[in-house]
Amino acid sequence: MAEKRQIAIVEDNVKIRDLIQQFMNMQDDMECRNAFSSVESLLGVMREGDMPEIVLMDIDLEGMSGIDGMKLIKSKYPDVEIIMLTVYHDSHKIFNSLRSGASGYLLKHTSLPEIKDAIDVVLQGGAPMSPQIARKVITHFSDGAATDEEKPDSGLTMREQEIVVGLVDGLSYKMIADRMDISIDTVRAHIRNIYKKLHVNSKAEVIAKSLRGEI
Amino acid sequence: MAEKRQIAIVEDNVKIRDLIQQFMNMQDDMECRNAFSSVESLLGVMREGDMPEIVLMDIDLEGMSGIDGMKLIKSKYPDVEIIMLTVYHDSHKIFNSLRSGASGYLLKHTSLPEIKDAIDVVLQGGAPMSPQIARKVITHFSDGAATDEEKPDSGLTMREQEIVVGLVDGLSYKMIADRMDISIDTVRAHIRNIYKKLHVNSKAEVIAKSLRGEI
DNA sequence: TCAGGTGTAGCATCATAATGTTATTGTGGT
DNA sequence: ACCACAATAACATTATGATGCTACACCTGA
Fold first, then answer.
1. Which of A53, A69, A151, B11 could join B58 in a cystine, given CB atoms 3.0 to 4.6 angstroms apart?
2. Between these two residues, B98 and B19, which has the higher pLDDT value?
3. B104 and A132: CB-CB below 8 Å?
4. What is the CATH number of the domain that holds B100?
């Protein structure tokens, strides 16, 4: 028991953060020296040789989101285990987290002892998941098999899809117009329709959606 | 509590089967009238109006396998929840089960009370999973998207990478500035540097590069 | 035949992005 | 001590994008 497991917390609600930190420090096998309200702050103190083994990460943070933060931390320090802590049931957030390398995903109503259990589970090589989350994950699996290679099909027409390809290629309206041999105003018109159908309002979002396979 | 939840069991080890059945029948909110050693036997008694809500299904059965059995039951009665019960850690069996519609996946060392908990979880819309199983599922997810494992490392600094994350999220300069709590002109400055380093000259190209893993 | 979607196009206007220039501060390396 | 560079910030200008409104030709299904 010479070495306690180092836990870090990123949570912008001070009461919750302090509560978890105090609880951690009451355990004789783990210790939480680093508790911050932002990913940026945590990254500021993380360096080789003094690395938390596990980070409890809130998703809904001011500044960088917990998901983006996790991606950053995972890319710099792949061995750090990250458990997402959130109030959201939102599927997209869940899959985004898991796909990006989260080691577990707990809903916030989870009790302190359950959080400790979750940490133990991660340290033993398991992955803690609230049952509701697990359900969504499984449903996701089932859907994948039921439709067998799903095609989101946002209802874009041929022409609109060609425009999207142009956007993904990083082209300007003018360049797309030239490539498709239509006027720039027609490109605008198509893009307006695409935005409506996809419920977005910038090139950036269209490109992101497309490259994520959501179109 | 007029209606007890109907549980069915398919398990070819008589001792285990009887044990689980007796335990179920000791609960005051659930009842197990149907316990068989094969999927075929269970299907023989399943009919509209007298349907178990949940089936505990062993994977390693004589005759039809538990996985095939589950597929069959799910195709005939999609509303029946099936929890797989097995000694196998084998990834292939796990994913096959989940993909085919299993509601949960428990390892056999699970204690009787834990099995009851698992059933409760399913009835509440969750999905029970042994932590080891959850870990495999998550690893599967990560493998799917994080296939690269390569960091091209375009020489972007931490701060610049954060900016890129913002761009990928479809944010405007203003939104990035707010999120990072810096001025919009600083965002511009960073983006100028990013463009130079990546040899691009639009948000669109940065987003595309990033999502293609070229950063 | 008529309504509705698609593809085309123009005009106008405001918002945002891209780029040039300059400057201060702090930090790490030589 | 000095240099390079990261991070911050301001100001200015031009380019591009986002969006509202209008219009017309073409098809297709009700």
1. B11
2. B19
3. no
4. 3.40.50.2300
